[in-house]
Automatic annotation (TrEMBL):
Its main location: membrane. It is a multi-pass membrane protein. Gene3D superfamilies: Rhodopsin 7-helix transmembrane proteins. It comes from Sciurus carolinensis (Eastern gray squirrel). Keywords: Cell membrane, G-protein coupled receptor, Membrane, Olfaction, Receptor, Sensory transduction, Transducer, Transmembrane, Transmembrane helix. The chain crosses the membrane at residues 26-48, 60-79, 91-110, 140-168, 197-216, 237-259, 271-292. It comes from the Eukaryota. This is Olfactory receptor 7E24. Pfam families: 7tm_4.
Amino acid sequence: MEEQNLTGGSEFHLMRLSKDPDLQPILFGLFLSMYLVTVLGNLLIMLAVSSDSHLHTPMYFFLSNLSLADIGFISTTVPKMIVNIQTHSRIISYVGCLTQMSLFAIFGCMDDMLLTVMAYDQYVAICHPLHYSAIMNSHLCIFSVCLSLLFSLLESQLHILIVLYFTYFRDMEITNFFCEPSQVLELTCMDTFTKNMFVYTLGAIYGFFPLTGIFFSYYKIVSSILRIPSTGGKYKAFSTCGSHLSVVCLFYGIAIGVYFTSAVSNSPGKITVFSVMYTVVIAMLNPFIYSLRNRDIKIALKKLQSRVI
């Protein structure tokens, strides 16, 4: 069929997770539960860190900001999806789609940037322990978070400006349950070369460079740990960065899976499964990873529980 240019219009049509009406109540309950667990878990991490003076360190400062970004990340997509399931609607307004796309880019990029900053924090803590306090001072921590936010806002605005510039769309059907930036970009009447250049440039800046920084940090960390003579010292050093490494593997593993699935497969079902894992599962698992693998967080949560009781 010949492609037809459609105007920006007033609304887009999102894809349903399932067309089976009997599954709708189950999906509603499942995603509502996952959303509440995610928000509660990340709020508990933030409360535990803020209430315990022993956790007022750079690592936990970044962790609190990561939890805040995770709450924003999942709140960008899941509440709208839950409402759509309940109302049996697939419609999202043009302004609503741009807003969702913008917030998704901001919080997704914040996760990306903060994980990179946390990798550097782990590198300094293990490779330069004597200079840790001097290097990771409060000014650098605040500057790092502000810089991460600035980069996130920049990426978001680039996506929005491109979509606003091309006011005509080839289609109004988005093959996902939310306005994923790359899929909205795919619907614009932009030539393939320009589109690929834009995607690859952003991918290099916000994907390749942060991932390279994380790999370099952990290369240095592993090299330093292997030089520790005692087995106990090696175990203690590895356990320090175990939670962060688990989250990094989860975040980038699923993100790469989403990218290759979108590029290789034309199956909306597979893309949706990876998108659910990327937008919902990662944010939900982060508090469990940090609370189960981190002794300090466990102690802070117990103290918080005893104060409430």
